[in-house]
Amino acid sequence: MSPGSAADLVVAVVHPDLLGTYGDGGNGIVLSRRAAWRGIGVELVQATSDRPLPTADLYCLGGGEDGPQVRAATTLREDGTLARAVAGGAVVLGVCAGFQLLGRSFPDRSGRPVEGLGLLDVTTAKGTGPRAVGELAAVPLPTGPLPAGVSAGGRPLPDLTGFENHGGVTTLGADATPLARVTAGVGNGDGSCTEGVWSERIVGTYLHGPVLARNPALADLLLGWATGTAPEPLDDTEELALRTERLAAVATGSRRTGRLRFTASRGR
Amino acid sequence: MTDPYHPSPPPSPAPLPARARAAVAAVAAVNGTSRLLGRGSGTVIGGRAGLAVDPGLLTELGRGRRVAVVTGTNGKTTTTRLLAAALEGAGRTVVSNTTGANMPAGHVAALAADRRSAWAVLEVDEGYLPHLLVQTRPAVVVLLNLSRDQLDRIAEVRMLVDRWRAALSGLPGDTDCVVVANADDPMVVWAAREAPAVRWVGAGQVWHEDAVGCPSCGGRIAFSPDGDWSCGGCDFARPGRDAWVDGDDLVTAGGDRYPIALGLPGRFNVANAAMAAVAAPIAAGDAAMAAVAAPIAAGDVAADGAGDAAGDAAGVGLTPDGALRRMAAVDEVAGRFGSVIRAGRPVRLMLAKNPAGWTAIFDLLGEAGDGRPPTVLSVNARVADGLDTSWLWDVPFERLQGSSVVATGERCRDLAVRLRYAEVDHTTVEDPLRALDTAVARAGPGAPVEFLGNYTAFADLRGRL
Which of residues B307, B327, B347 is at a domain's end? Predict the structure, then answer.
């Protein structure tokens, strides 16, 4: 529970005015509804950039444009709340630009590196190829975030599905563990054929969709981390229908695993 | 700038060189074959064939005509229609890409099919504005608004706006081109303020979600409830307006007030009409050169109103007021806002393509309650719609709580999940026509039904009715 709120669980969408371009605010909606449907008293906060970041149990950062991404990183670093919350055990989901700025550095519009928050051991550079745009599918790795009893029902995380749209290439450092292996699309794009990272209680990913609407098991994993107990299953019939459709679409579609697009063109 | 007392001669399409004539023949042949084979009207495919024969065809077809281009994220098709109606009503012969084919192949097809009309009003895809500026040297450019749309295809707002800015600031200093720009949208202002001549219109902009970060300094733009805005970090602010929307009126800086009475519903169409009304006198040209040369507040051409009776081929002067009156007859645009009867129930057909558009339509639907008609929502995600459906989560579907909703379209499953989390009761029926009949069955005899679809979902249903 966060001080200053009567709710059991506070979910904050971080800087939706800067990192709200790609519909990732939906992750906050998914988390708060899935908590509420289980009887957890939840408060969803839209934490805009014009005021100090509030204390929360779970922070969601979404995709945004280059300029606003730099502004969000600067504001969050000066504010300091997010780093303190992470040190205190808060759960963080970063998507796309919101993933990149959690790392050590990321490129601005012209490709110059900007200092990130350093909460994830990843570095992002501007890709030399075209933007990675399209459906992305990835199989969670055995090294993925699966502490027993925390993912819903203790089951392994199922395949991840979403839509990527980014020009950055993210390289993982020694302290970052990849989230999943790419089966369609680009993902991190650093030649490792991986998508996303996780570390302690932070997940970074390139998946839009939003990612938690497409992958409710990942939503429950984050909720489990935040509440300390494995959430009970919900009737996810509609999410399952969507997942089945999307995973089938990439299986039959023409989108190849696109790592070569970034790695082969580098150094040219 | 043209001397108002010695206006330029009326526009007239220039004769085509041989290669362009061959290209026009190719457009006609391909489109004719396409129609013969039942493959639709074939507009775009014919245009592509013409451009393959002569890559400079758009320039040739535009030469000698007085061209107006209309672009922006939302309202392009409607504003194009309103502007064309205003010009036609004032005696101008107008060619326009009325089918919504708003890329160069569509422009070529429309212009090739009508070689006579001296005025062209062209709806232009946001990404093609720089191309159209070079190819058609328009007399007026209408910039409506910019917000997130089809992020996988069109690019982010700031990338797009920088391309507009570069193109508009690159217009030659002696150009006759006047930009009519929405002063209430900071992104539009950022692009337009480098243009040689701008008329600023306060048309309103409900959607601010893409404009908070200042394009000039990266600071934060603050909006006041009355629509004024300024950046906290630099001097970027709303420019002085030549005209603005006040309630249902268009007001000019000179103190004139013109009623906006439309056959189309919604606040967003009042905004579209205001933009078209300011653009119309400039687009009309010739006899209205006084209005072109000075901001509209400085004086209108008095002859307005005589045109309907005179039927003068060269047209008459057109004022914003006269333009607005001629727009009133437009009550549907490419089937949008129109109604069809299905099993005795009137079905209102509406199109919205992106979060700003859907939010505007929800304003139009009114408050939720028992009295709200059954509503069909249809979503596709083809190339023309944008392949990523994440935008559904920026749409405040929560406002439909308490309504009877049927989710349909090729991406009905994305929509169903969104509605689940918005806690809106819904049924999912994949086939749009069956979905419509499900809603029709829920409506009482003679009671209305609403249909709201995105771009290809709307076109699909229209095609099947």
Answer: B327
A15 annotated active-site: no
Local mean pLDDT, 10-residue blocks, chain A (268 residues): 74 95 96 97 95 97 93 96 97 98 95 96 93 94 56 69 96 92 96 92 96 96 91 95 96 55 32
Catalytic residue among A60, A96, A166, A193: A96
Residues B186 and B311 grouped into a single domain: yes
Quote the CA–CA distance of B327 and B164 in Å, as a whole number.
28
pLDDT in tens, B180-208: 999 999 999 999 999 999 999 999 887 77
How many contacts does A have with B, using Cβ atoms within 8 A? 99
DSSP A157-179: P--EEEEEEE-EEEEE-TT-EEE
Instruction: For residue B380, give the nearest of B450, B442, B438, B462 by alpha carbon.
Output: B462
Q: Which tens digit of pLDDT belongs to each residue from B293-325?
A: 344 443 344 344 433 333 333 345 688 999 999
Percent of chain B at pLDDT > 90 equals: 66
CA distances (Å), A204 to each of A98, A122, A178, A195, in order? Answer: 8, 10, 9, 9
Q: Which of A24, A65, A134 lies closest to B157 in CB terms?
A: A65
**DSSP letter (8 states) at residue B157:** H
CA triple A151-A154-A156, angle to 5 deg: 75
Tell me the C-alpha distance between A217 and B15, whole Å.
65
Instruction: Kindly state whether residues B305 and B365 are assigned to the same domain.
Output: no
Q: How far is A240 from chain B (nearest CA, A)?
A: 9
pTM: 0.81
d(CA A60, CA A222): 10
B99 class by beta-carbon count within 10 Å (0-12 exposed, 13-18 middle, 19+ buried): middle
**Is residue B265 within 8 Å of B271, Cβ to Cβ?**
no
The CATH superfamily assigned to A9-263 is Class I glutamine amidotransferase (GATase) domain (3.40.50.880)
Shortest distance between the Cα of B421 and any Cα of chain A, in A, equals 6
Of B327, B359, B379, the position where a domain reaches its end is B327
Q: pLDDT tens digits for B419-435?
A: 999 999 999 999 999 99
